[in-house]
Design a protein that fits this description.
- The protein has 518 residues and is α+β, with helices and mostly antiparallel strands.
- It is 62% helix and 11% strand.
- The chain has 18 helices and 9 strands.
- The chain has helices at residues 4-22, 25-44, 46-51, 53-79, 167-175, 198-216, 222-230, 238-246, 257-273, 279-295, 300-317, 324-338, 346-375, 384-411, 418-441, 446-471, 485-504, 512-517, and strands at residues 87-93, 98-99, 105-115, 118-119, 123-129, 152-161, 178-191, 413-415, 477-479.
- The strands form 2 sheets. The chain has a 5-stranded mixed β-barrel with strand order 1-3-5-7-6. It has a two-stranded antiparallel ribbon with strand order 8-9.
- Strand 3 (105-115) and strand 4 (118-119) form a beta hairpin.
- Helix 6 (198-216) packs antiparallel against helix 7 (222-230), helix 13 runs antiparallel to helix 14 and helix 15 (418-441) packs antiparallel against helix 16 (446-471).
Length: 518
């Protein structure tokens, strides 16, 4: 079997996606037993054992079921025992707090230390009133406004399950390791800097970067810069977010493979001109990828992209060649083992589906079309720019096709102008990311920082303008019912199956479709 890691990762993702949607322990146990029996049979019969494929599929599926059961029984269910009417809660802040859109609540992720002076473990989403906006709501001490990662909060409050009656929201929070929320019923005591770790260090540096961007960039675009650099969408206005979403460019607001590629290619181009690409440089780039992952708070999309990039750089380090599908499967397996509910995290799922379609289909189809261009006399002198445009359009179309059912499932609609918008948008997005990042790193250099800030502001404004323009068309975004998810999935699967058949077969008649496209 050529790609065992791809088979493992894809199987685990599919099984866990179905289990997380169903959320029925009885079904999970039955499926686990079925897959274990199938795995044993595949090992017993020589014919199946020699193929390797079936044992790997059944073994991966059984492992996914066991993983789901383990997390439900040992991570999420015990945490619900902490729920009570009035209990004393002590927790350590894990991430920088942020205010709700109406400014009435302060939210942050924290790890439980104790409940009613008994040891407690798990993550919790704390919700504090930012100021006294209702009667009988306690006014929090001033230091809660300056809470940072590593600070400890103690208060009498109530723990309760998050989104108990909303399965989609509950799955989303579980994909981030959260199943409990809390709010204070009395005074809150804050102890600054109780925990010092590598995570808290990066969270402090992340907060400094956020403040630097908010103070330097104009208020109407600083949210876009923050989302592109560190994946923080909390500062984007609703109008801008809607424009990005309807124009099919919302993927740029979650740090993923696109953002990592921009930085890695930029660094490689600089070093190649100086002839300095060595193993030390590869190690530096690996550390740089980890740095970006830390600053992006290890979101689902950046974990998938970061692991793939690290595998690619490892192959460069040891003079090997990384297989893209194997790397994708490996990264999926690692993310799912860490938290099986990542299988329903929108950022991770959309990122995975788009990457799979690009690697498995868009790249081979692009290569085949470009070969046809070269063989035809009239098309031999096609400029490289046009080739780039053709490849970009194909990549966008395949990414849209792969993510179509998930867009409908999660967001109730899809963009019809995504391929065109990305073609206009992405040439300016790369300079926007690079210039913004360089400004944050070198803001203390007077002349250089001002020049790079002007370039960054211009590039970001162009991106926002393009998104707003394309989203303003009447049918740029079509809203559909959630019932359309299954038909969309069937259409996407049928399209990819037909393409797979065409690409695999060597007979001329079956390649006529691609020849006509060329």
């Amino acid at each position: 079997m050529k790609r065992p890691l791809a088979v493992v990762g894809f199987t685990m993702l599919l099984v866990l996606f179905l289990l997380c949607i169903a959320q029925k322990m009885t079904i999970t146990v039955l499926m686990c037993e079925l897959f274990l029996i199938s795995f044993a049979c595949a090992l017993i019969f020589k014919k199946f054992r020699q193929t390797v494929f079936l044992p790997v599929v059944f073994g991966s599926a059984a492992a996914a079921c066991l993983l789901f059961i383990a997390f439900e029984c040992f991570v999420f269910l015990p945490a619900k025992d902490y729920c009570g009417e009035r209990i004393e809660i002590t927790a350590v802040v894990e991430e920088c707090p942020y205010e709700s859109s109406n400014g009435k609540r302060l939210y942050f992720l924290a790890s439980l230390v104790s409940c009613d002076k008994k040891e407690a473990k798990g993550y919790v989403r704390l919700s504090f009133p930012a100021h006294e906006w209702k009667k009988n709501t306690p006014l929090l001490p001033a230091q809660t406004k300056t809470l940072e990662a590593g600070d400890e909060v103690t208060f009498v409050g109530k723990l309760y399950p998050i989104a108990q009656n909303e399965k989609s929201f509950r799955n989303y929070f579980k994909s981030k390791g959260l199943c409990l929320a809390a709010y204070p019923l009395g005074e809150v005591t804050v102890r600054k800097g109780v925990v010092r770790s590598l995570r808290t260090f990066f969270m402090h540096e992340r907060k400094k970067a956020i403040n630097q961007i908010l103070s330097s960039f104009d208020s109407d675009i600083n949210g876009v810069v923050l989302s592109a650099l560190i994946g923080d969408k909390g500062y984007i206005s609703e109008e801008t977010y809607s424009a990005f979403y309807k124009s099919g460019t919302a993927h740029t607001m979650a740090v993923s493979g696109l953002h990592l590629s921009i930085w890695i290619i930029f660094i490689l181009e600089i070093l190649r001109k100086r002839g300095a690409v060595s193993k030390a440089v590869v190690i530096f780039m690996m550390l740089f990828v980890l740095l970006i992952m830390f600053f992006a708070s290890f979101s689902g999309s950046v974990k998938r992209a970061g692991l793939m990039m690290l595998l690619y750089l490892c192959s460069e380090l040891f003079s090997g060649k990384a297989d893209s599908l194997n790397s994708l499967g490996f990264s999926a397996a690692v993310v799912l083992i860490q938290n099986p509910y990542s299988a329903v995290n929108p950022g991770f799922v959309l990122s995975f589906a788009a990457t799979f379609s690009i690697v498995a289909f868009a790249v081979p189809v692009s290569e085949l079309l470009l070969e046809r261009f070269k063989k035809r006399r009239r098309l031999k002198k096609i400029p490289k720019l046009l080739n780039t445009v053709v490849v970009s359009v194909i990549i966008s179309l395949f990414a849209e096709l792969a993510t179509l059912p998930f867009q409908i499932h999660y967001f109730g609609g899809f963009s019809t102008v995504g391929a065109i918008t990305n073609l206009l948008f992405l040439p300016a997005f790369s300079p926007a990311v690079l210039c913004s990042g360089l400004y944050v790193m070198f803001y203390f250099v007077p002349v250089f920082s001002k020049l790079i800030l002007l370039l960054a502001q211009f590039a970001v404004r162009y991106c926002v303008f393009t998104a707003e323009l394309m989203s303003s068309f009447r049918y740029s975004y079509i809203e559909v019912s959630d019932r359309c998810t299954l038909p969309a999935a069937i259409i996407s699967a049928a399209a990819f199956a037909a393409l797979y058949y065409i690409l695999r077969r060597e007979r001329k008649k079956e390649r006529e479709l691609l020849r006509l496209l060329a």
